[in-house]
Amino acid sequence: MTFPPIDSYVFLSDTHTTALVGPDGAVEWFCVPHAEGDAVLARLLDREVGGAFALSVAGCPTPARRYHPGTLVLENRWETPGGTAIGDDLLAVRPGDAAQPIRAGHVLLRRVRAETGAVRVRAELTPRPGYGAEAVRWERRDGGWHAAGTPLRLCTDLPVSLTGGTLVAEGELGAGQSARLLLGYAGSAPDLAEADRLCELTRATWQEWAARSDYTGFAAETVGRSALVLRGLSYDETGALLAAPTTSLPEEIGGVRNWDYRYTWHRDAALLLLALFRLGHAEEGRRYMQFLLSLCAHQHPLAPLVGIHGHTTEKQELSHLSGYAGSTPVRVGNRAVEQTQFDTYGHILDAALAYQQLTGELTGAQWALLRRHVDTMAHRWDEPDHGPWEIRGPRRHYVNSKVMTWVCLDRGVRLAALLPDRTAPTDRWCRIRDALHAEILDRGYDERVGAFVMAYDSTELDASVLRIPLVGFLPGDDPRVVATIDRIRDDLSIAPALIRRYRADDGLPGEEGAFLLCCFEMVSALVLAGRRAEARDMFDRLVGHAGPLGLHPEERGPDGGALGNHPQAFTHLALIEAALNLDAAGDRDRPVTPGRRPGRTATSRR
After folding, report:
1. Which among 248, 337, 371, 512 has most CB atoms closer than 10 A?
2. Helix, strand and coil percent figures for the chain, each rounded to 5
3. Cα 549 from Cα 562, distance rounded (Å)
4. Short-list 114, 111, 77, CA closest to 91
5. Taking the chain, what is the end-to-end CA distance rounded to the nearest angstrom?
């Protein structure tokens, strides 16, 4: 069996777990009891042993699909010789309260209704716990079907038969008739009579959440879709953000660059906080900041990533899975947690400053937690680290890490003044910050290369340095920034608008595709350099790759094909940042001045 393109999978979420639906209507990825848990449906990673929840209408192998506007509810439409049908796929949600506007219903719901003529519907449910390692035994109980040893319960109004570990529900629908399938994953049987109400409630809840945004500027519809994706990647219990809902979707087809991204990377912090507040979702912004502060209280030193509950899981390789398109190994857990990445401190302090400027709500106790991490970087600023890209090999003086260390110290100084904290050693922080700034300009910019480079004493390019103007380290039209933009576009491009992170040896065989975070950050850098027309052209090309569903993966190949885990939070965050920067620039063809707060431009501040 062939594998569908990575970005042909539709993303569903109830903010507690997630699911991916293939173009043929099969749910091929579903984790329980939460998004970081066991993938009981994992055909995404093995066509033979990975479980699936297939749904089809005879005579139409692939339905037309779209999201209901302003939702994460998938609408399917089947056209057959005998009739037409329309259906919904969703993970049920309901309204919450002011602190948590969306609450999970813990039900995967599928509904099909015949519009004209007659159609034959067939569903096949084959869970395989242990990421496809185990078969299930079905038991009839409480008006539904229970997969023994799992929390899965299926209720349906279609006739059901059992073939081994597969439940088959099949029947014919005449015009106006509906079929419903509810797969509960919280241990209790869902109520079939509530199916239609759950559909409408879920759609209304998402639309109400989306309508809270008052953003009507550049690419508003695209920005709104990305915001919904980010909300779907946010975990309801803690406010943590999944980098992606999947593991081991390859950065190179058939290669070994396959990673588990069902975790929270701190490098998303400032971008997420600013996006949430700028788009009118202050409650989620506050929850995420509280999650970060809880980590600051319990982690020292800071790890570059954590699980959605604030800790990480054990790391293993799943040898029984063949991987997406033969890409192995399939991994659970991520060894990047063991690395030292100093950019982590800069991202968290950057988020904290933005939060305080927007809300003024940081307390003295919370500042004390943050201050401890500023002190850490004031002591360790001259040490090497592993860098932002988790490259295997010895620690180096990565330029991005140095810039984000500068950000940590700079934001610490500014927070101490805002709160105010007269006991903070701000004079010392300022001296180190300024010395580091001078060192980066001296050792991080190579006149021979004509660009900021990956690490001190190297000539390798690194697209992560595109953040230099975005964090206010230098103005966007500084000649060194402009030269760096041009060198990266010349040397790291693999296709129009598509650029790699780097070409350096990272200790792994093969190579990856264009890293979409960096592509959208190039858009923002071009805006800040006063090159709006180039930025707009690049933005349009990147968005055009996503297709009608508006979902973006981690990477793309030279042909535009999707690579890496999907959908990727980092990509959607950088897309929003780029759109807001383009919106702030308007029709002006001159540099945007760093210093504006969110509400006009996303992260260009100094």
Report:
1. 248
2. 35, 25, 40
3. 14
4. 111
5. 53
**136 near 124, Cβ under 8 Å?**
no
Rounded Cα gap, residues 262 and 16, in angstroms: 12
Please report which helix (H) or strand (E) contains residue 576, including its range: helix 569-585
User: Which amino acid is it at 137?
Assistant: R
Say how far residue 50 (Cα) sits from the centre of its chain: 23
Longest CA–CA span in the chain (Å) reads 78
User: pLDDT tens digits for 423-463?
Assistant: 999 999 999 999 999 999 999 999 999 999 999 999 999 99
| Helix count and strand count (H, E) for the chain | 14, 26
Between CA 48 and CA 423 the distance in angstroms is 63
SS3 labels along 544-557: HCCCCCCCCCCEEC
The structure tokens listed for 355 are 């939060």
Beta 18-21 vs 498-499: how paired, if at all?
Answer: unpaired
Cβ neighbours of residue 380 closer than 8 Å, sequence gap 6 or more? 342
Q: CA-CA-CA-CA torsion for 495, 499, 504, 510, nearest 10 degrees? A: -60
Sequence-distant (6+) residues with CB within 8 A of 604 are 469, 470, 472, 476, 524, 528, 581, 584, 592, 593, 594, 595, 596
Q: Which residues contact 203 (CB under 8 A, 6 or more apart)?
A: 68, 71, 73, 88, 90
Taking the C-alpha atoms of residue 516 and residue 432, their distance in angstroms, rounded to an integer, is 33
The residue behind tokens 């945007």 is 592
- Please give the average per-residue pLDDT across 509-533, as a whole number: 97
Tokens 């079939």, located at residue: 192
Instruction: Give the count of alpha carbons within 13 A of 316, CB side only.
Output: 9
Q: Are the C-beta atoms of residues 449 and 459 closer than 8 Å to each other? A: yes
pLDDT digits (tens, 9 = 90+) for 273-283: 989 999 999 99
Are 188 and 152 contacting, i.e. CB atoms less than 8 angstroms apart?
no
CB–CB of 551/573 below 8 Å? Answer: no
579 contacts 573 by C-beta, under 8 angstroms: no
- Are the C-beta atoms of 156 and 150 separated by less than 8 Å? no
Q: Which residues is 103 bridged to in the sheet?
A: 94
Kindly report the average pLDDT of the chain as a whole number. 94
Torsion-angle region of 145 (φ positive above 0: left; ψ -120 to 50: alpha; else: beta): beta
pLDDT of 268 > 50? The answer is: yes
Q: Which residues contact 240 (CB under 8 A, 6 or more apart)?
A: 234, 264, 288, 291, 306, 307, 308, 309, 310
| 530 vs 533: CA distance, rounded Å | 9
- Per residue in 321-347, pLDDT (tens digit) is 999 999 999 999 988 888 999 999 999
CA-CA distance, 44 to 295, in Å (whole number)?
A: 32
Its pTM stands at 0.95
Torsion of Cα atoms, 360 then 363 then 364 then 369, to 10°: -110
Eight-state DSSP code of residue 90: E
